[in-house]
């Protein structure tokens, strides 16, 4: 399920460029892809939420900054 959500979340973004998402926002998601893949591989294997939290902590500030750039 984690893999499906990640693939849909990242996979739909290129199709939304221009009319729903600014290009900056989509490009800012790219650095988080390897971390999300790592988090997905660890999701049910360890009890710690660290991999998923790390993915969030990478993606959130990058996308927030991209939205600020897109809005100015």
How are the SSEs ordered, and which strands pair?
Layout: H1 2-11, H2 13-16, H3 23-29, H4 33-42, H5 50-71
Helix pairs in contact: 1-4, 3-5, 4-5
Describe this structure as you would to a colleague.
This protein is mainly alpha-helical and 72 residues long. It has one domain. The chain has five helices and no strands. The chain has helices spanning 2-11, 13-16, 23-29, 33-42, 50-71. Helix 1 (2-11) packs antiparallel against helix 4.
Task: From the structure above, extract its key features.
flat; 72 residues; mainly alpha
Mean pLDDT, all residues: 93
Strand count: 0
- Give the domain tally: 1
Indicate the overall shape. Answer: flat
* DSSP summary: helix tally: 5
Which residues sit in consecutive blocks of at least 5 with pLDDT less than 50?
A: none
Write down the Rg: 13 Å
Percent helix: over 70%
Beta-strand percent range: under 5%
Largest sheet: none
- Series of secondary-structure elements, N-terminal to C-terminal: HHHHH
Q: How does the helix and strand content classify structurally?
A: mainly alpha
In short:
The chain has helices at residues 2-11, 13-16, 23-29, 33-42, 50-71. With 72 residues, it is mainly alpha-helical.
């Amino acid at each position: 399920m984690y893999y499906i959500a990640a693939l849909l979340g990242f996979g739909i973004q290129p199709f939304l460029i221009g009319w729903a998402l600014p290009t900056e926002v989509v490009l800012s998601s790219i650095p988080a892809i390897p971390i999300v893949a790592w988090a997905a591989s660890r999701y049910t294997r360890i009890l710690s939420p660290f991999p998923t939290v790390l993915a969030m902590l990478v993606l959130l500030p990058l996308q927030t900054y991209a939205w600020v750039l897109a809005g100015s």
